[in-house]
Amino acid sequence: MPAVTTKSGPKPGKMSKLEGLPEYLTRNDLAALLEVHFETIKRWEREGKLPRPSRFGPKVLRYDKRTIEKFLQDATPKEQSAE
Question: So where are the chain's domains?
């Protein structure tokens, strides 16, 4: 089954899937985590919808897992308290 892509950006609610992943994530790791296609990750990078990856060589990009974790936490809507 192909991954679903959206134009709205990454969806929240993927925090539990971060456990067991390496400290630095590839684009494929991130695509699997967010349940989108690899090309969607590349497009979101261009559009600025994702944190910038770190470059470890001329062709090696990685996302810091802690940065992605914080990004997903910030993207999760918070419940508003009724006052």
Answer: 25-75
